[in-house]
Amino acid sequence: xxxxSIAASIVEAVTETAAAYPGARVKxxxxxxxxxxxxxxxxxxxxxxxxxxxxxxxxxxxxxHVLPVVxxxxxxxxxxxLDGVQSFRCPRCGEIAADLRQGxxxxxxxxxxxxxxxxxxPELAEGAATGDGxxxxxxxxxxx
Amino acid sequence: MTTxxxxxRRGILKKNDELAAGLRERFTSAGVLVLNLVSSPGTGKTAFxxxxxxxxxxxxxxxxxxxxxxxxxxxxxxLAASGAPVRQxxxxxxxxxxxxxxxxHLEGWEGVSLGDLKLLFIENVGNLVCPSSYDLGxxxxxxxxxxxxxxxxxxxxxxxxxxADAAVITKIDLAVPCGFERDLALKNxxxxxxxxxxxxxxxxxxxxxxxxxxxxxxxxxx
Lengths: 144, 222
Known about the structure:
The structure holds 2 protein chains of 2 kinds.
Chain A: H1 3-18, E1 25-34, H2 41-52, E2 61-67, E3 70-73, E4 78-81, E5 99-102, E6 106-115, E7 140-143
Parallel strand pairs in A: 1-2
Antiparallel strand pairs in A: 1-6, 3-4, 3-5
Chain B: E1 2-11, H1 14-30, E2 33-38, H2 45-58, E3 63-69, H3 74-80, E4 86-90, H4 99-106, E5 119-123, E6 140-146, H5 153-156, H6 158-163, E7 166-170, H7 175-178, H8 182-192, E8 197-200, H9 209-220
Parallel strand pairs in B: 2-5, 2-6, 3-4, 3-5, 6-7, 7-8
Helix pairs in contact in B: 2-3
């Protein structure tokens, strides 16, 4: 039952990001969760309500996108999705495939904000990294 | 009304991961091999670790242990009987250890300096689910499974077994009375984590301990 700790970590990260958009309401939080990430979706959804209560995120939706496990098979030189997490073998040749390429993700993909009145979008070029780590960026897409 | 999507692409446990990366650097530069021991409650982690600490000390290795539990310092007291420095981490209801708890408990640990140690064991809270998400900066994650638990444990908890670097089967002295199907257990571990090192041990009789200890001293360069 670590979903409450996970939910609290999400609230913290989203609150930090949303602070850059004063007045905007967080409508939706989208996650990417690998099948091997040991997260129970229902439990996380339940904990989300608890963790967002009394915060500006109250009432926001949590959307969990589950990613299947992908393994790389050396002999076939092929990445394949696995049908479940009970056996780590290449679906094509049946050999063991321990080289995991996807399935452990535990990420916040994006948040959807609702702004009561249109405002200037902060200057942020597409693809510009704002964080310190590679692969972490806050790109903006605006929808009318 | 404007709607905008802000992409974060950020690890939910980023803070833990960063702390763990810092710990891993500290451990590496101090030359200490750190292991994170994970199992269900009742697998026999503490008895196994107690014997491991005692025998490593007999081989002349400087060892220490951090031990996590929701409440009580019973395990720390048991482990301290080995003569190794041991510190209890009480999580007070939290079902796993995290990198921050480890960091805090390394500070002000009387008589222990990382640079003097060869091996540091972190005995996690008994739980096969939650600890798998939390990196503690360890170099080797050990998943333990006892013969009394059933051969299909790795299939039921693939997240943890798949993240392990070594597996230990404990209580093999009870294998016959329990009707433990060894081949099936080994097969199941290999299906979930192909090629993993597996040790079959009994902390009570000492069976299989030498192979485990040789592995540890080899990895730690003792």
